[in-house]
């Protein structure tokens, strides 16, 4: 009896630590946090499409090998899918409606990855027809994008199904603009069930990738707070460099700037160092210094010797994000083509 109890305790502790016996390719960091969501499971396709995760990784290696800027793009893609109507691939749908779908919304500006998600889907359709959802592909592609930028590799839950509705209006409402202050940011996240820690940890995603001048130049370089001039909190030497890249008065300047100038394709702690040294791009990044809790986290990560704590926190936060309003079981559908036309 005592032995059985001990075995039970060992199993519970192992499960809490994310250890799953029999799972191929155990993740380097694999703590799946919080309460599980009904219908989602690590290895959901184990019986129906056992090669699904390997196929996604192989495609991602090919995609990022061809163009490394697509790694960060596909991480952002997951954020835009999950925050709007949940992680249901509604970002992929094409709407004929006059106001358009999520992909036509203002915050989708510069969003890339549509063709790549479709490329991965086509591979999975060849291997396992009508089995793996587009929503899961988006989550797996983001996981692999992080890994291919030297970030943590973690287990992902799968079992999501695809939504059938896409409205630009939802994306306009649910995605925070880069001009957000910290109160706004916390509100945008909290309505989706994410807390301040998820906010400060997931903002660390801006350690990779690029942004177009139009998303920050006005707020930070030329027209801070509606007055001509630079944001006084932005480092002056850095602002001067940014002004060379981004032309004044050009509202639709599509010039791209690395968000972390030191290591734009390495998933590391530099984002937090950028924020404390006033060399982050968006007001929404700088705003993390205006709240006691987010500031303390930024400062701790900026001086941390190893990324271990950030990586462990990131796995928790991105798993929380991957669980937002998911469709499982009989809800939603499994589509053959992700970018299907609706309405
Ligand atoms: C906290 C609120 C956030 C705001 C206001 C914000 C805003 C933005 C903006 C304006 C861009 C530049 C887009 C462009 O010009 O093409 C961007 C890029 C990016 N964002 Fe965020 N973001 C936020 C949170 C997140 C989260 C939670 C993630 C991921 C989990 C993320 C991942 C990325 C990545 C990887 C890029 C680079 C994309 C690329 O290189 O193509 N962001 N973000």
**How many strands, what sense, and barrel or not for the largest sheet?**
2 strands, antiparallel
* Measured distance between first and last alpha carbons: 60 Å
Helicity range = 40-55%
Number of strands: 6
CATH architect. name of the largest domain: Orthogonal Bundle
The whole-number mean of residue pLDDT values reads 91
Number of helices: 14
Largest sheet, order of strands side by side?
A: 1-3
- The global form is globular
Q: Please state the CA-atom Rg, rounded to the nearest Å.
A: 20 Å
Overall domain count: 2
Uncertain regions: pLDDT < 50 for 5+ in a row? 1-30
Bound ligands, each once: protoporphyrin IX containing FE
Structural class: mainly alpha
The CATH class label of the largest domain is Mainly Alpha
Strand portion: under 5%
CATH topology of the largest domain: Peroxidase, domain 1
SSE pattern: HEHHEHHEHHHEHHEHHHHE
Describe this structure as you would to a colleague:
The protein is mainly alpha-helical and 343 residues long. The chain folds into 2 domains: 39-172 and 322-342, Peroxidase, domain 1; 176-316, Peroxidase, domain 2. The chain is 43% helix and 4% strand. The chain has helices spanning 2-16, 52-66, 70-83, 114-127, 134-148, 168-174, 182-190, 196-202, 217-222, 236-245, 270-276, 283-286, 292-302, 308-322; strands at residues 41-42, 94-95, 157-158, 210-212, 256-258, 341-342. The structure holds protoporphyrin IX containing FE (HEM). Protoporphyrin IX containing FE (HEM) is lined by residues 69, 72-73, 75-76, 79, 110, 112, 176, 178, 180, 185, 202-203, 205-206, 208-212, 215, 282, 284. Its EC number is 1.11.1.7.
């Amino acid at each position: 009896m005592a032995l059985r109890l001990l075995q039970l305790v060992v199993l519970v502790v192992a499960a809490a630590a994310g250890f799953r016996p029999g799972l191929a390719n155990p993740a380097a960091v694999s703590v799946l946090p919080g309460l599980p969501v009904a219908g989602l499971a690590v290895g959901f396709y184990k019986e129906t499409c056992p090669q699904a995760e390997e196929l996604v990784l192989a495609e991602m290696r090919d995609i990022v090998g061809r163009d490394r800027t697509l790694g960060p793009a596909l991480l952002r893609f997951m954020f835009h899918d999950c925050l709007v109507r949940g992680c249901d691939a509604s970002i992929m749908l094409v709407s004929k409606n006059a106001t358009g779908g999520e992909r036509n919304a203002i915050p989708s500006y510069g969003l890339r990855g549509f063709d790549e998600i479709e490329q991965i889907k086509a591979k999975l359709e060849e291997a396992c027809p009508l089995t793996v959802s587009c929503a899961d592909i988006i989550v797996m592609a983001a996981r692999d994008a992080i890994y291919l930028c030297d970030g943590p590799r973690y287990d992902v839950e799968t079992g999501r199904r695809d939504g059938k509705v896409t409205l630009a209006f939802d994306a306009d409402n649910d995605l925070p603009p880069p001009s957000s202050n910290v109160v706004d940011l916390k509100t945008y996240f909290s309505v989706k069930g994410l807390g301040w820690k998820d906010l400060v940890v997931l903002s660390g995603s801006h350690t990779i990738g690029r942004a177009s001048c139009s998303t920050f130049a006005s707020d930070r370089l030329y027209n801070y707070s509606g007055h001509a001039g630079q944001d006084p909190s932005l480092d002056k030497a850095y602002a001067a460099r940014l002004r060379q890249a981004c032309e004044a008065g050009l509202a639709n300047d599509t010039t791209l700037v690395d968000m972390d100038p030191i290591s734009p394709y390495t998933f590391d702690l530099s984002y937090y160092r950028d924020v404390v040294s006033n060399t982050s791009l968006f007001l929404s990044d700088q705003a993390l210094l205006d709240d006691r809790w987010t500031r303390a986290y930024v400062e701790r990560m900026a001086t941390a010797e190893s990324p271990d704590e950030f990586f462990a926190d990131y796995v928790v936060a991105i798993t929380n994000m991957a669980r937002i309003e998911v469709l499982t079981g009989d809800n939603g559908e499994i589509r053959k083509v992700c970018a299907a036309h609706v309405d």
